[in-house]
Amino acid sequence: MTASPENPPESPGWTGFLSGWLAVGGIWALTIARPMYVAIASGPEALTGLGIRRLDLIVLIALLSFVAPTLVALTGLALGKLFGPKVRSLFMSLSIATLIGLFCWQQVDMSAPLVRTLLPLAAVAGFTFLLFRSRFIQNFAVILGIAIPVVIVSFVASYPIWAEAGPTKRPGTSPGSIPKLRSSW
Where are the chain's structural domains? Predict the structure, then answer.
């Protein structure tokens, strides 16, 4: 059966791994990774107190920014293979909406108890419905995937992190000095 304007194909929602990964990864970066990065880079001695070096930073960024979104997207893919595209779409929509609800909860954490409870739950319910039904909202969630590199770059560029992970200074040189060349004559 072919699709026509009178008989559009049934759209199950989240069909590709990459679109699901970008949507989960972008919202994960804003909701989970960014607050963690801010806490890690909390002061000039933050990395020294934690004993984190350059390789540790690379591993931390890989684990914090990429592992969980990849696991969620792979789980959605497996659910789609086992139970069909509707179950996959529902799982991805619910996962993304839960992260959005957590983000809302972070924003209203200091509000009245009723707002702090109802707003995140309403966000989860509303966004689950919208993400399951609306291709526009799904595409918007995929666009949020741009948050992944933005959050990582803002973390690495912050002061205590860049001092550890950035280019290192050679011994005996100061900023703006001209290195002395030795002559063999």
Answer: 19-37+71-165
CB contact at 8 A, 67 and 22: no
pLDDT of residue 42: 81
- Measured CA to CA, the distance from residue 96 to residue 37 in angstroms comes to 21
Q: What's the CA gap between 181 and 183, in Å, rounded? A: 6
Task: Report the distance separating Cα 92 and Cα 78, nearest Å.
Answer: 11
160 within 8 A of 41, measured Cβ to Cβ: yes
CA distance 56 to 52: 6
For residue 115, the model assigns a pLDDT of 87
Question: What whole-number distance in Å separates Cα of residue 185 and Cα of residue 175?
Answer: 29
Question: pLDDT below 50 — which residues of the chain?
Answer: 1-4, 7-9
Q: Which residues are CB-contacts of 135 (< 8 A; sequence separation ≥ 6)?
A: 11, 13
Q: Tokens 């560029």 identify what position? A: 157
Do the beta carbons of residue 108 and residue 116 sit within 8 Å?
Answer: yes
Q: How far apart are the first and last CA of the chain?
A: 86
Q: What's the pLDDT at 181? A: 58
The pLDDT of residue 179 is 55
